[in-house]
Amino acid sequence: MAGTPTIAAVARHAGVSVATASRALHGQGASPATADRVRLVAQELGYRPNAVARALQSGRTGQIAMIVPDAANPVYARMTSAVQHELAADDRQLLVAQAQEASAVAAAIQRFGPQLIDGLIVVPLRPGPQVLDALDRASVPTVVIGSLPESARQGVVRADSRAGVRLAIDHLLERGAHRIGFVNGPVDTTPGRLRLEGYREAIAGAGLEHDPSLEVAADDFTYAAAMPAVRALLDRAGATAIDAIVAANDLIAVAALRALADRGIDVPGDCLVVGMDDTELAQIAIPSLTSVDLGAAARGTLAAAQLLAVLRGDAEATEHTTVEPALVVRESTTRRERR
Amino acid sequence: MAGTPTIAAVARHAGVSVATASRALHGQGASPATADRVRLVAQELGYRPNAVARALQSGRTGQIAMIVPDAANPVYARMTSAVQHELAADDRQLLVAQAQEASAVAAAIQRFGPQLIDGLIVVPLRPGPQVLDALDRASVPTVVIGSLPESARQGVVRADSRAGVRLAIDHLLERGAHRIGFVNGPVDTTPGRLRLEGYREAIAGAGLEHDPSLEVAADDFTYAAAMPAVRALLDRAGATAIDAIVAANDLIAVAALRALADRGIDVPGDCLVVGMDDTELAQIAIPSLTSVDLGAAARGTLAAAQLLAVLRGDAEATEHTTVEPALVVRESTTRRERR
DNA sequence: CACGGGATTGGAAACGTTTCCAATCTCGAT
DNA sequence: ATCGAGATTGGAAACGTTTCCAATCCCGTG
C-alpha cells in the first residue's frame, strides 16, 4: 500500500495548494466551492489528518495523562473509567500510568514531557514534598484528585472524607451504637489521615470520650491487610465491647464482616458495620453493606471536566472543588425484618 | 520562560551541529569526547527530546492503545493494569478507551489513526463482522484478547473458557454433585458461548444427561443482571433439585450465593458454588468462593508482551496463545469443618 | 474604465527531530 | 611524504501539518 494519503495528495487531486486544502478541511477562509471539492476528494481518498504532525505544529496533542496508585483497585478503576468517558466526549485520549511510591509518582509526572500531553490528572496517595515538587514542575495544567495545601497551584478535586466519616458515625449513633470502632488504612496517606480526623471529630462531637483502643490501622487499604487489623481490634476491645465498626474502605469493611462472622458475632444484630466508597462490593456483600459514597466516579468526571475547562481557558487552573459524601444505607446497619 | 530547550539549543551551546548533537544523544556514531560534552550540556540545559517531533520523524510514537468493554469492571481493570505494567517496562505509554457495542468498538479502532499509536490491544465482547472488519482495517499490529477465527490476521491471546468450565464441573462431580446448574452471561458474547459449550461438553463427558432446565443466562455479566436469572433457575428446577451451581463469572456466583442464602439453602452444605475469573471478590465472599482463574492478568501481560515482540520484529503478528485455567478451591465447595 | 477593498489563493516558513549524503579529519601503512 | 580507509562532522532534506504573508482575483463604486 502507498501509505495513508497526506494532505498534499488531497491538494494535488483537488487541484489546489496544500494551504488551501488545509483551510478547506478546517472550514476557515476557503471559498465554499473549493471547500466542498476538497472535502469530497479527502473523503474519496480516505484522508485522515496525521495527529502527530498536527500536534507538532500546534503544540497540542489532545492527550491527557492520568496517574493512579493502582488501576486494578475498584475505586481507581471507576475513576479512570469516568475520566476516560468525560475525555472521549471532547475527543481526547487518556493515557494511564500507575505509580504508588512517591518517587515513582514524581518520576511519572516528569516522564510526561510537556509535548506529549496537554494536561495531567494525578491521584497521589501520599502527596509528600517530592510529589508536590514534581507537581509544581509539571509544565501542563494539572488537576489533583486528593488533598493539597490551600496554596497549591494545581486544580484540586477532593472527597470530603471527614464529613463522610461523620455521616457514618451519626448514622450509627442514631441506630443506637455507643462503642464505635474504627478500622483505618495507613495513616500516612491523605485518606487515612483525614478519615482518622473525621472519626475523632465525630466521636468528640457526639460527646463520647476518645478511646484509643477503638482505633486501629491496616497497612494498606486492602482486604488482606485489613484482616489482622480487624482481629486485633476485636481482641483488644473485647468482642462484646464494640457495637459498631466504621471502616475506611469497603474492602476493610468486608474484612470486618468476615472477622465478625468468624467469631459468631451477628451483623447487624450484635454489631453494625459501615464501609466507605460505596463500591459494587457493598451491594454484593452478605449482609449488604451500608457505605459512604465518596463519589469516586464523580471526582473523576469533575477532575476531567475541570481540566478541560482550564485547557479551553474557561476556568482558573487552581480551582478547588469538593465532592459531598452521601450515605447509602443497607443491611449491615438495618435491624432485621425477615423478608 | 523561554520554553523547553530544543536540540538546536543544545547543539549551539555545545558548539556542534544539530546532526551531531542528535547522534551524541543517541550514542550512535559520535566521537566519545563530543558525545560526553553534548550530554553534559543537555543535562545542564534540562533538555528533553520532543516526543512528538521524534514520532513525526520516526513514524513511531511509543504508544499502545487498548480498547476494553468497561474499564471499571474488575476483570478488565486487572487486565489493563497488567498491560500498563508490561508496557511501562518497555518505556511505552498506554492509551485506554472503552467501547462495548460493536459499532463503538469499530469506531474506536478506526479512531486511532496509524500515526498516533504503534500497536493496539482489543478486548471485544462480541467480535461480530463489523468488529472483525475494523480489526482487519487497523493499520498497526493488533493483539486481540478473546477468541477470533483461526484464520485471523491478528494476534490472539485467549482464555480457555471451555477447559475452565470443565475444571469446575469435574471438581463438583468429585465432591459428589449430581445436578449441576449453570448460570451463564449473554450467549451472544464469546465468553458466554464458549462457557455454555464447555458446560455441555463436561456434562456429557461425565455421562450425565443434558437437562436444559439447568441452564440459564443473564443479560449481562453483572451482579444485578444475574440475580433474576439465578432466581429463575432455582424456581424452575425446584430448589432441592440442584446440588451445585457453576457461574460464568464471580459476580454471577456471588449473586447465586445471595439468592441461595435468601432461600435458606446452605452453601456449601446443601449446594456447592463455583465462580469464574478468580477476582478478589472470590476471596472476599462469605463463604469464600471456589473459582476458576482464567488468567485475566496473565492474558494482559501476555498480550502486551506479544505485541511488543511483534513491534520488535521478534514474533509473528498472528500468533495465537492460550492461557490455561486453574481451579482455586475455597469454602463454597468445601464441606465444613468448623475452624 | 480605473480603482480599491475584501475574499480567496499559493508559496514558504515553522514546529523539533532523525538521517542521508557529502565533506572533512585522523592516522596508520606504504 | 602520500595515500586511503575509516571515523567524525555538518548541511540539508524529510516527516505532515498549520499559518504567515504576499499575490491574485472578483466585484462594486466612483
In short:
Chain A has 339 residues and is of the alpha/beta class. Chain A is built from 13 helices and 12 strands. In chain A, the strands form 2 sheets. Chain A has a 6-stranded parallel β-sheet with strand order 2-1-3-4-5-11, sandwiched between helices. In chain A, strands 7-6-8-9-10-12 form a 6-stranded mixed β-sheet, with helices on both faces.
Structural commentary:
The structure is a homodimer of 339-residue chains. Chain A is α/β, with parallel strands linked by helices. Helices cover 45% and strands 16% of the residues of chain A. In chain A, strands 2-1-3-4-5-11 form a six-stranded parallel sheet, sandwiched between helices. The longest helix of chain A has 17 residues, at 296-312. The model of chain A has no long low-confidence stretch (mean pLDDT 93). The structure holds a DNA duplex (30 and 30 nucleotides).
